[in-house]
Amino acid sequence: MVVLNCEFQDVQHFDWWRDGKKVPDTRDISNYVIGEMTPSDQAYYSCVGFPENGPHIESNHALLRIRDMSIFHLKFKLVGNFTTFQADQESSDYKTLVRDIQGKSEAVFEAPETESDTNGTIYIHVNQLLPDDGVLVDMRAYIANSSMSTQEEIDLLWSGLSSVAKSSDGFFDPSTLLVLSTVLCPNTSWSSPYGIVQFSSGDLHSWIESSGEFCPFFTIKDGEPIARAVCSGDYIYPCAWVPSDNCGVNKTADQLLIYLEENLMTGESDIQDALSVLTGISQDTNVTSAGVDAAFDIIHQTGSISQPTQENVASVVDIVSNLATLDQALTMDAEKKNGAVSRATMALEKILLAVNVPSNQTFQQVAANLVVQVINSESDGVRDGIAFSIIGDDSQSFDESDIQLSTNNLGNGNRGGVVQASVVIGPETIDEGTMGNIAFTVYRDDALFVMDGGQDNQVGSNDGRRNITVNTNIIGASLGTSETKPLNDPVTITLEHKQRNATNPQCVYWEYSTNAWSSDGCVLTITSETHTECQCNHLTSFAVLMDVSGIPRRSERVEQVFGILSYIGCSLSIVGLLVTLAVYGTDRKLRCLQHIRILMCLCITLLFLYVFFIIMTALDRYPGEPEVGPGLCGVIAAVLHFTTLSSMSWMGVEGINMFLMVVRVMDSYIPLFMMKASTIAWGIPAAIVLLTGVISRQNYANSDYCFLQKWPLVGGLLIPMAFILALNLIIFALVMRRLMRIKSGGRNASELKSEARHEIMRRLTNGIGVLLLFGLTWLVGYFTVIEQLNLAVHVIFILLNSLQGFFIFVFYVLRQPQSRAHLREHMGCCLHDSPLTTNAGPMSMKQTTMTGTENSINKSVLSESDIDVNIHDEVCE
User: Fold this and answer.
1) Structure pTM?
2) In the CATH scheme, what is the homologous superfamily, with its name and number, of domain 69-181?
């Protein structure tokens, strides 16, 4: 016996319900009693209360089941004369039909029960009859005490009902028969987003993967089963598969591009499918560096197609055009990693030459950033010359009507309009050996022509004022081969300027072997404000480089004069520095003086500066075009950077030495002064050069004249130099102030020996002269940005910079009696005293020994008395 309890408050009445149907005669019965539970009593039970106002209230559901009993739902359709049948369970027709169906079903299942004791006991219950152009029968079969599997029980029920259908004289339609289990999900088809898949039968609560199709390649689980399903049920109603998508979301643009790159097939249909997908992905703005690398590599792989179709080529053109709109940083990264961009553009050229174009026909594809046209070399009139041109007023876009191709009579190539880009190939160039296709390309800009080092696709000088870059479309041509080889007769290229106020045009072509623009084999024939015409002795991609800054460039003659002045000044300085080093280096007494050693270090640094400056100038034979590789150019720039900073640092050391000698006076001795000074004057500049190079990387050196670019020049050179100059100016101001006090100080001034005063003034004069020389040259350099003063200031700047070493020779050799005398000893009669030189006489020195340290230290002093000025110089014993 089973008792179900239900209670409500504030309701008018309530009833018991079973499987969604009201149970008769249960109004307001709190305890629903099932005396002896039968198989058909297995169901969901609940109470439904009806308040006076408002919606009805339903209790929780209670599920009643009989343990170890299988439940099956049997569904089929009876056909025949059932037009008057009503779904009224209380009608006699309904009850009669139920008894008839149940009786025949029970009769057919009694025979199997007697044949085998494994079948268990089968109970049949007609659950519902519904009219539907016949009668839809919903029955339940209950099998107890069976040792069969669920599938065997299904087969048994199916077999029994099929026999009923055969003996029903056509009233039982066997095609409508369904036997559904509550614990075994049947074979099922499911329509997924990627096609229809199958699920085989499975037990309740089990998981299964679909069979048949697999996830497409553009999903994150490509190659795996499309769906998974769980067999869901409650042991009362038929269980069913609940499928879910197993493919996941679509791959990102990067993931899809990498997949296509790794799995690109060579079959014609496979190639086109991949290119079709790539055409859409290449417009995705969310693609990253990895995806861009893969996209360019896919284009490169298409170059290996032996017989590309015109559809293949059209897709490649569209893709390359889309890739040209990507962020320039992504394109440069792809090129720097593995040259992917260059390999892709070369692959485009290969497939243009390989595509099948019948004789006397052309293939043409126009995209937003790229135009291509291909003609068979066997076409009529081609061997008499061919002209290809883009005609139109808008250089920022292309249109099919703008493309013109003419043969035979080259003069008819332009049917009117402004020429954006054109190339004319004469009959001498197209000889009998020309085979295959003749291909033409026009790129809207230079986005896909990335120089090694990623220097913003610029060639030559870009010092913050000038900006030399491509100022035209880029037009290319190929005759049967993508190789760049000399032609029998030069081709003529005409290109329209994009920016009208640009100056200094230079005809160049793209050299794939170096990934750079080169002018070899190209000459400028005609130029105007709007167009430039070039002639080149080979075929590849051509452009015109121009200075788009709007700043007029100096003439070649002026540049030659500047170069000659630099060579002369640097040569004089090198000779002067070598003589200065020889004079002081061969005089044992002089070279042991501290201020002389500072001078010699300065001379050595300047000597390297001038030598490398001459090397830099000699390598810059063609202004606006790099002649050496970025590695060597960077080394030269780094040496110039270091020696310039180091020379200024040694000037700072001389200033500190003067400060100790004149201003500090007492307790002015610094142990190991030269070692510490060398660490500062050479170590700090080296650290600045290293730090600037690490931060700037590819933007450290200018590829044209191998010196620092704008921001490394400002941050790594001009700012440290300004600091040193400011420090020296302060020190020299203090020294001058001190000397003025000595001069007017009465007793103290009189105690200073005449020779010492002359020595101080001589060294101070020399130091001030060199300081002003260094400071003045760079101060003048700042004025070179003023265009009105540019030429004159440049001349002064070149002279002062190049003659610095020579001025040091004059200050420290010719004007010094001791060094001049030493030089005269070696040169004999070639050098005589001049009345213009100052003979200060040698310094009188006394040897004293300082104690208090581990070793005795020799120093020279002017006087042992407590005077305002001491000169501390180490001397050799």
Assistant:
1) 0.56
2) SEA domain (3.30.70.960)
